[in-house]
Amino acid sequence: MMSIPIIAQAKIYMSVEQVQKILFPNKQLSKTPIIITDDLQERMRQASSIRHPFQGDRIWKTADGNWLIVDEVVGKHEMITYAVGISPNGSVLGIEILEYVESYGYEVAEAQWRKQFIGKSAADPIKLNQDIQNIGGATLSCKHLTDGVKRVTVLFEAALKAK
Amino acid sequence: MTTRCQALLGTFVEISIDQDEHCSAIDEAFDIIKQVQYLMSFHNPLSELSVINQRSYLAPIAIHPWTSQILKIAQEVHKQSHGLFNCGIGHRLVAAGLLPQHLNLSQYQFGGIEDITFLAPELITSTKPLCLDLGGIAKGFAVDQAVELLMLNGVESGCVNAGGDLRVFGGSSRPVHIRNPISPSQLIEIGSIQHGAIATSSLYFSKRDYKQSHIVNPLAQRESDIHVDFSESFSVVADQCVYADALTKVFALSQDHTHPCFAHFSAQAIRIST
Has residue A120 been placed in a domain? Predict the structure, then answer.
């Protein structure tokens, strides 16, 4: 079934470069991609109940051992790109939302549809509802994001800590 | 303009300021919201709210000035709404699976916000066991604290939005859209807000996620009247977000936009029918 999704909100808050400056001001980050084995993928899935695979190519490290990980959570009704800063001892230094796309109509998880949003930067905003900034209404739950952060901390314990 | 978003208070909190400087003020404002969350979270068994729920009927408890402030506001709205607003409904939400269970509910006859006595400005006790949930007021309170901190730090104008409860401050006026309760992906422009707040209660996300209504009637006599079901959207505009937030419950429960409570708090009620 392919129906056109109705997009209520598509917001890009910031780019990866901008979040690097917010979470690690005045620090140089180097990209440190990781190969995610099936075993690790499974452990992350179990810890977080997030099904879509984690991509290991959006990981950065500072010279003093801090990490920045960018990930997405894809729910039935929304897709959120977020960044997590982690200290060398594994404590979460900060979590920032980079993009928030909300839709109804069919699963946002549909890969083809998602593709048009991934990798956009704040300098290249989605041309949708840009004048709609202040949205009131019933409270949205951030549970998916909490699950996402869980899988990032599992990634740290399993694959980054020893590096 | 700078806009940032973090997941706090169980929802998405957006802070937007019109100036490009003062970026560190946004960090501080998020920290304030984290502190409100730390004090007032029902989920965290170590929060000050949880301590109040565990022990306030056993011994006096010293509380943070913000907790004191929010409890006083909750008592004020409780009084003015003749009991329609009451934070002492946590056990109802626990029983419905909407909040985690920290106490054995069947052991207690719970009182309400009216059973709290202030022994000193920051020292309280309760005459009955309590199961308070500040979910109906803490988001608005956190928004106000963040706004006040931003203004103190010299931010001229902006907006703080905690999952749909928002406050616009400073000179600029901002258009505000609220979700159409029939189809929450559609937005209705309701006008602009300058120096003011709006909060909304509606059940479209609860229904979408097959959850029991979180709008609880504290005066319900029968089991079937506890969780109130409706399909409209109830918004309240007020000077401060804490009042807007609390008063949406009075509006949703009374279904009366002329309830004297709104005039008392200089608030306006807006219903979107389906």
Answer: yes
The Cα of A146 is separated from the nearest Cα of chain B by a number of Å equal to 8
| Total of domains in chain A | 1
pTM: 0.92
| List of chain A residues whose C-beta atoms are within 8 Å of the C-beta of residue B160 | none
Whether A8 sits inside 8 A of B185 (CB atoms) is: yes
pLDDT tens string B99-147: 999 878 887 899 999 999 999 999 999 999 999 999 999 999 999 999 9
**Contact A14/B at CB under 8 A:** yes
How does pLDDT run across B10-53, given as a tens digit for each residue? 999 999 999 887 789 999 999 999 999 999 999 999 999 999 99
Query: CA B58, CA B120: separation in Å to the nearest integer?
Result: 17
Q: Which residues pair with B161 in a beta bridge?
A: B14, B166
Q: What share of chain B is helix, strand, coil (3-state, %, to 5)?
A: 35, 25, 40
> Domain for residue A1, yes or no?
no
Any B CB within 8 A of A162 CB: no
Interchain pair A145, B7: CB under 8 A: yes
**Structural domain includes residue A136:** yes
Domain ranges of chain B: 2-20+156-272
Q: Does domain B2-20+156-272 have CATH number 3.20.20.70?
A: no
Q: Which two tokens stand for residue A130?
A: 């840009």
